[in-house]
Amino acid sequence: MSDKKILLVDDLEFIRRPLVRYLSRRGVKNILEAATANEALQKIESEKPDLIILDVQLEDTIDGIEILRRTKASLSPNSIVVMLTAFKDKHESVCRELGAYESWSKPLDPDEMIEKIKGILGT
Question: Rounded to an integer, what distance in angstroms lies between the CA atom of residue 123 and that of residue 15?
Answer without folding.
Answer: 24
